[in-house]
Design a protein that fits this description.
With 341 residues, the chain is α/β, with parallel strands linked by helices. The protein is built from 14 helices and twelve strands. The N and C termini lie far apart (109 Å).
Length: 341
Amino acid sequence: MKKHFMFTLILLITLSFMLVGCGSPADNNSDHKESSSEDTKTEKVFKIGISQFVEHPALDGAREGFIDGLKEAGFEEGKNIDILLENAQADFPTTQTIANKLIAENVDLILAIATPSAQSAANATKDIPIVITAVTDPVEAGLVKSSEKPETNVTGTTDMNPVEKQLELLKEILPESKNVGVIYNAAEPNSVIQVNIAKEAAENMGLQILEATVANSSEVNQAVQSLAGKVNAIYTPTDNTVASAISAIVKVANDSKIPIIGAERGHVDGGALATLGIDYYLLGKQTGLVAAKVLNGEDPAGIPIEGSKDLKLIINTKSADILGLTIPEQVISRADEIIEK
């Protein structure tokens, strides 16, 4: 009897240790499920398609600023966003092909840089959010109902220039000016809008606008030459064809001693005399912050289109020296930046 009791006691103790060591099947399954849940809990990666109309410093700057703006808002490539970049190389039909490709890629958001790319994207989809930049007049382009309340799948920023202020700057630097040449591509709606604004503003300033239109960058030399001897200065709007060929325009204008007032800093970087205009990198960064709102769940239909918050007065004194001009001291004293080389 004593031996039997000892055997039973040892058996019970052994079984107790086995149960404590192994744990219950329910406990094991619970631990496994919790671990699996933690392993599979990953942050969503948003797919962003970029449709850029053409390469030049302004639009490239807008794209780079956009990516930096997203990063500032917590969206970074390689972590929680994946970027697909497409460039139409200034070919209008290609913008539609790109839009269709991005839709087929099932992107979560499209960044459309410049009016042609924006119009093609908006025509191709009413469901995927579209954020725009470098679009002069989103309402006139048929992209939104109003800038204050888009009421479509489109939001973003506009690069509408302070055209009147830019012509006032021209008059301040060159007070004797009477005739001003404007070079632009008449096929770009944004450029036509700016030229019409310039005509109206010029009339109130005693200026006459002489137009020289181009279809592509290979025609800009002839356009500048057609204005030589007829104008006191040239105004270059935010036109993609002009921006792509600004260095060529500046060279011919300098040879003819014609000062150029540009619409944005890329023109001055390329050799134009001055601008009171947009920094496209900063505009792009502003656009990235708008896109972040969309990625965080806001409806683009209710996000207002924003204008540039950072206009800069930039003077190119090297170009002034080439032209034999002296920039008035009151202009120099207000400059945000002076380019000397």
